Amino acid sequence: xxxxxxxxxxxxxxxxxxxxxxxxxxxxxxxxxxxxxxxxxxxxxxxxxxxxxxxxxxxxxxxxxxxxxxxxxxxxxxxxxxxxxxxxxxxxxxxxxxxxxxxxxxxxxxxxxxxxxxxxxxxxxxxxxxxxxxxxxxxxxxxxxxxxxxxxxxxx
Length: 156
What we know:
The chain is an alpha+beta fold and 156 residues long. The protein has one domain (28-155). It is 30% helix and 32% strand. The chain has 3 helices and 8 strands, in the order H-E-H-E-E-E-H-E-E-E-E. It has helices spanning 2-25, 37-52, 90-96, and strands at 27-31, 62-66, 79-80, 83-88, 104-111, 115-123, 137-143, 148-155. It has an 8-stranded mixed beta sheet with strand order 1-8-7-6-5-2-4-3. The longest helix has 24 residues, at 2-25. The protein starts with a helix and ends with a strand.
């Protein structure tokens, strides 16, 4: 019995270590001292695409970002993580919502000097939203020793 508990504890500690290593790999050079809204949103969109793009359910080649009243007035690159990015007003989303492969994201952010959080709500074809939140994500970043943001966790 003790051997089984010991084995589980070692496995748990190994998993925690692997999670920490993964967080270190996703460090971004976005400076905390000079908060750059465009760079922070770029980072979050890139990490969201990486988290949601799977072999069995790939994201479409174009991702639409909803320009709602809380979305900052920023410019983003035309391509992030090999996806075309289009920031559009809700009326334009209504026009394009019938595309077969449609991904429309509403993004909300909060930040402090130590933490940065993004809440990303995804809508699919017809502007349908999954009520279970399975396509929505919460990205939580913290400041690392070098003064950049590190993706701490991605959750629903």
